[in-house]
Amino acid sequence: QVQLGVSGGGLVQPGGSVTVSCEVLLFDFSLIDMSWYRQAPGKERELVATIDRTGGTTKYSDSVMGRFIISRDDVKSTAYLRMNSLKSEDTAVYYCQGYRALAKITYWGQGTQVTVSP
User: Fold this and answer.
1) What DSSP line would sit under the chain, residue for residue?
2) Which of 29, 46, 69, 106 could bond to 77 as cystine, CB 3.0-4.6 Å?
3) What is the pLDDT of residue 40?
4) How confident is the model at residue 2, as a pLDDT?
5) What is the per-residue pLDDT for 112?
6) How far apart (Å, rounded) are the C-alpha atoms in residues 20 and 17?
7) Residue 1: CA atoms inside 13 Å, Cβ hemisphere, count?
8) Angle subtended at Cα 54 by Cα 52 and Cα 55, rounded to the nearest 5 degrees
9) Are the CB atoms for 49 and 41 separated by under 8 Å?
């Protein structure tokens, strides 16, 4: 059973930075495309950033482009989302998702709260 363990997040001041991490357990990390989603109160879950299994392609939503950076470390089987220049509207629960393209299987990690507030 593939498991995704999420860590990081917390309370951050506007303009600050925070990194959230997602470790993939019990599967070959190099075969999984990784994404970060977020869900704010009263809103639908939205895709924030994606990195393919090679690490060569990244994509971002317009709302975070230029502020957030998605990356991966295949040695540590971990994906990261570095969030910079945080705004109050970035407040949400952040989820990581792993996708095995060949098998068309999606895995979700537990959410982690990021709150941007003075």
Assistant:
1) --EEEEEE-EEE-TT--EEEEEEEESS-GGG-EEEEEEE-TTS--EEEEEE-TTS--EEE-TTTTTTEEEEEETTTTEEEEEE-S--GGG-EEEEEEEEETTTTEEEEPPPEEEEE--
2) 29
3) 96
4) 85
5) 97
6) 10
7) 4
8) 65
9) no
* 84: CB partners within 8 A, 6+ apart: 17, 67, 68, 69
Q: Are 97 and 112 in contact (CB under 8 A)?
A: no
Q: Walk along the chain (118 residues) and give the pLDDT tens digit of each residue.
A: 889 999 999 999 999 999 999 999 988 999 999 999 999 999 999 999 999 999 999 999 999 999 999 999 999 999 999 999 999 999 999 999 999 998 999 999 999 999 999 9
* Tokens encoding 107: 């895995």
Tokens representing 63 are: 């709302």
H or E segment and range at residue 70? strand 68-73
**CA-to-CA distance for 77 and 96, rounded, in angstroms?**
13
